[in-house]
Amino acid sequence: TDADVTELTRWVSNLELFPLPDLLPVSSSLGHSLGHTGHTLGKVGRFLQSFRQGTPPNVLSRYSPPMQTWIDQQIDTGAIDVITSEHSVNAIYLRPGTPAQVPTVLNAHSLMYNWSLNHLQMNASDHVWRDRLYLSTLRRYEQRYALQFSHVVVTTSDDREALRHMAPN
Fold it and tell me: Is the dihedral of CA 149, 62, 41, 125 positive or negative?
């Protein structure tokens, strides 16, 4: 809200806002012309893109190229002293090699892989086959980003053990 933005500006020297990207990458005209088939094709396309890139679809759906450009520019110009990432979803913005330029801290909590695995094991998943298919992608993504950060903070012993198993150092 405008009130939130006003309050935030009291606490930071520079506040940049980026609009949320479209959640469905299938264009609205394609989706309308194909009806339900277009929606299904969009889901299949997002799954294939997710698997190919090793990045979960919920992360890809919120990725903002303008935000990535801004972050890269801040790093390149030395305008920032440290990068912190709240949760694994935001870790997508950290490029390989960034920790050498700027210290990086990941606040890892509620790892997606553990959450999905636990729900599958407890028969609590609403989308069993989808979650089973995504497990390897979730694990690869969380392992990859955990290795990229210079420091990792966890909030639970379960997350600590999972990250130690994925990225021992």
Answer: positive
